[in-house]
Amino acid sequence: MKSVLVCGAGGFIGSHLVKRLKREGCWVRGVDLKHPPFCPTAADDFIQGDLRDPALCAEAFDREFSEVWQLAADMGGAGYIFTGDNDAQVMHNSAQINLNILEACRQHGAGRVFYSSSACVYPEHNQTDPDKPTTEEGTVYPAAPDSEYGWEKLFSERMYLAYGRNYGMPVRIARYHNIFGPEGAWNDGREKVPAAVCRKVAEAADGGSIEIWGDGLQTRSFLYIDECLEGSLRLMRSAWPGPVNIGSDQMVSINELARLAMRIAGKNLSLEHVPGPLGVRGRNSDNRLIARKLGWAPSQPLEAGLKKTYAWIEQQVMSGQATAHRPRATIPP
């Protein structure tokens, strides 16, 4: 039986990945500061602890793993990443986690190591046009990410590749583009756009309004969790290290996303545009490289995944879980 380690197994993508790996027959150990907040973990073994602590990493690596999935990071949506208030914490915490995990992989052995990078590594100046953003993998240099979160991700990409070169460690790097789905953060201040929009629509009375940061004309693409996992597994099991985009190329404005959520909910709401952190003006996943290298690219329409996500968030709202934007366990300063 294949032994797999998932770092960040209490998070949104990590908890879904554990379920997928278990369906494939793997023995899975999860590590995180917290257990998944919305469902029991499917991991065979779960170590709750701080991956910034080298001793915790040594405890997790008490055996050789065929695969190590490094998804752990200090992160969140625009309200957390783009205010500037959390920059030092984000960079320090995530860099420390990656340093520890890489060194543990080197010392204890790992078959393959997957690192989840982000579309935030791409230069801000290539994403000023909401209709024609550029995120082709080779355009990441000269480097000019729009956030310190993006700078840390880019640094860590280079660190994983350096360990791969110097120590013969097979690494795989994916640049995720706005992954969404059920059982993700939706009301704790770290939720991403699809979850925030679904929550606002679910909480609003028909005929009311919801707030949208900025003019709502900024564009993004959003990838449903199942396709994220499919692309990640294909990359991990391939002979190619990446980095590669894993995201949808169906680009929509935030206003369009909100109207789609309204249509799914059967509600007629107006949009109230208010100041707020925005990130880049436009971003979309360029999927030409993944299609060429892996013979696969995401294809599911946004509406299909948003229907499932809205249904789950609406259920949370109706069950009374949306009372106070509850903070959940996170990395301390």
From TrEMBL:
Keyword NAD: yes
Domain NAD-dependent epimerase/dehydratase residue range list: 4-247
InterPro entries: Epimerase_deHydtase, NAD(P)-bd_dom_sf
Top-level division of the source organism's lineage: Bacteria
Keywords: NAD
One Pfam family hit: Epimerase
Coiled coil: none
Protein name in the entry: NAD-dependent epimerase/dehydratase family protein
